[in-house]
Amino acid sequence: EADILSGLPLKGKKVLITAGPTYEAIDPVRFIGNHSSGKMGFEIAKAAANKGAEVVLISGPTHQTVTHSLISVIPVVSAQEMYDAVHQYFNITDIAICAAAVADYRPKKVASQKIKKQESTLTIELEKTKDILASLGAIKKQQFLVGFALETNNELENAKEKLKRKNLDLIVLNSLNDKGAGFKKDTNKVTFIDSDDVITNHQLKSKTDVAKDLINKIIEQINA
Ligand code: CTP
Ligand code: CA
Predict the structure, then answer these.
(1) Where do the record's region annotations for Phosphopantothenate--cysteine ligase lie (predicted)?
(2) CA 31: distance to chain centroid?
(3) pTM for this structure?
(4) What is the pLDDT of residue 6?
(5) Is the pLDDT of residue 155 over 70?
(6) Is 164 among the annotated ligand-binding positions?
(7) CATH of domain 2-105+125-222
(8) Is 34 a catalytic residue?
(9) Is the pLDDT of residue 2 over 60?
(10) Helix axis angle, 132-139 relative to 79-89, nearest 10°?
(11) Out of 34, 50, 158, 216, which one is annotated catalytic?
(12) Are the CB atoms for 79 and 103 separated by under 8 Å?
């Protein structure tokens, strides 16, 4: 089909992708995490590599695996480690896609010993993590930058606000209002919003197909 006519449209392009959750240590045996499976990010990596891109996939803890000659996986654990890894690659990147479910907060102090059970309540003070995507938006040059937005209300408005505030070229709105969509599922219902405010709604589909739609949209945009 179209691939045969256009060859490999991302040949020679370097694509940086974040995936999965991050784990933020509380003490040596405990962490704060989330239910992200990493599936969406891994599917995007495969879709990009299948179009010829050289992919660096920076992933938090996940059970996902991939073997593809064009994909290198860099495992990280915390938001800070993901931030550091992403910034190591960003200046040689053509397209960056932040699909990770990065923790927004982490324990302000990490206990060096296992916290023992004592009082009936325990308070852990949290501090904000760095926003990786926003940090890329602030320094980007020629890079095409893509973010995700997970929203439960005022979806379009919130997603548009994130696109502008984080200086993105494209944002993928993930609708949690649909039962088949989201964390741990094999399907997603997404809406693309580009920097010209062009909105594309998609049906509920497999994350594999969402990833293909996203890569096709990016190819369209960078060639426009
Ligand atoms: N993101 C990131 N680093 C963070 C937090 C978020 O790179 N510390 C990225 C995510 O990978 C995603 C986008 O920012 O691409 C939006 O994440 P989301 O959680 O929807 O938005 P936040 O900006 O964190 O705002 P909030 O959770 O308050 O809605
Ligand atoms: Ca968040």
Answers:
(1) 15-224
(2) 20
(3) 0.95
(4) 57
(5) yes
(6) no
(7) 3.40.50.10300
(8) yes
(9) no
(10) 30
(11) 34
(12) yes
What tokens were used for 48? 């990009």
Average model confidence (pLDDT) across the chain: 94
135 close to 83: Cβ distance less than 8 angstroms: yes
Nearest partner of 56 among 35, 82, 80, judged by Cα: 82
> 224 CA distance to ligand 2 centroid (A)?
31
CA 102 – ligand 1 centroid, Å:
7
Identify which ligand lies nearest to the alpha carbon of 129: 1
Angstrom distances, CA of residue 164 to CA of 83, 94, 196:
21, 20, 11
Chain length of the chain = 224
Ligand 1 pocket list (CB less than 6 A)? 18, 79, 98, 100, 102, 104, 129-133, 147-150, 162
Q: Where are the domains of the chain?
A: 2-105+125-222
The two structure tokens encoding residue 184: 């741990």
